[in-house]
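Troubleshooting log. The previous structure file for this entry was overwritten by mistake, so regenerating from the original sequence record. Sequence copied from the archived sheet and checked twice against the printout by T.R.
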Amino acid sequence: MAGQIKKMIDRVIEERAKGNPTIRSTTETKLILKGFNPSRFDAGSPDDPAVIAKLRTVAFEMGVNI
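Regenerated output below.
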């Protein structure tokens, strides 16, 4: 199922921001620094198990359960 990474990134951003644009921007920046540029992934992006595992780790570090 393609696009799983994009959904996970969006969920991390939404869970952390809770509607606050400043926290949203900060979370996007943190994800970019960790190697997950939200603009590089879309609904058609292939699901790489290694990337998904790393994203789960990053989400856990940010306190988001995905």
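Residues 22 and 28 are 10 Å apart (CA to CA). Archived copy saved in two places this time.
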